[in-house]
Amino acid sequence: MKTYKESQRFSRTIIFILIPICILVCGITIGQVGFGHKVGNHPAPDLVNILIAGFVCTLNLIFWFAQLQTEISKQGIKYGFKCIISYGGYIPWSEVEKIRFLRYPSIGEGIRLYSDINAWAYVVDGNDRVGMLIEKKDRKKNILLSTQQITALKQFITTVAPNGLEVTEG
């Protein structure tokens, strides 16, 4: 069976911001916990330093390995962020009223509510900032999925979408 699969990674900008912070926090933690060099007039307890260092390093790893995955088949649309845990959903074609391909402004990366179009946006910022808006029949939870392969996605949607489904641009 034919399926369309796309996998997108976060931009490396956020990782390059987090790496120096991770190195700084780990350096302070190693200096204080390992060598007894206290930092500042009122240094944080060792356990707090270890927890902060662990959190920053874990956050860095999550952004390094996380990716937005989209899979479209004759049954429906599966989407979500994959990393340590998976978060996303599945929409069968019977729940889809309309699909619009559109350009969106820079709204950051990740999962966020995009109120201009009343949709949950699963976004990995790319060069073009184009996405597929899935308008559901119940209108409660529309979904915007960013894509880096707009032409291939449009062609695939027209071949697998059920007859009568409205597919538009803008």
Give a short synopsis of this structure.
The protein is an alpha+beta fold and 170 residues long. Helices cover 32% and strands 36% of the residues.
Q: Secondary-structure blueprint of this entry?
A:
Elements: E1 4-9, H1 12-35, H2 46-65, E2 67-72, E3 76-82, E4 86-92, E5 96-103, E6 110-114, E7 119-123, E8 130-136, E9 142-147, H3 150-160, E10 166-169
Helix pairs in contact: 1-2
Residues in β-strands, percent: 35-45%
Number of helices: 3
Could you give the distance between the termini? Answer: 30 Å
Q: Helices and strands, in N-to-C order?
A: EHHEEEEEEEEHE
Task: Please tell me about this protein's structure.
The structure is a single chain. The chain is of the alpha+beta class. The protein has a domain at 88-163. The protein has helices at 12-35, 46-65, 150-160; strands spanning 4-9, 67-72, 76-82, 86-92, 96-103, 110-114, 119-123, 130-136, 142-147, 166-169. The strands form 2 sheets. The protein has a 6-stranded mixed sheet, covered by helices on one side. Strands 1-2-3-4 form a 4-stranded antiparallel sheet. A hairpin with a 3-residue loop joins strand 3 and strand 4 (86-92). The longest helix has 24 residues, at 12-35. The radius of gyration is 21 Å and the shape is elongated.
Features:
6-stranded mixed beta sheet
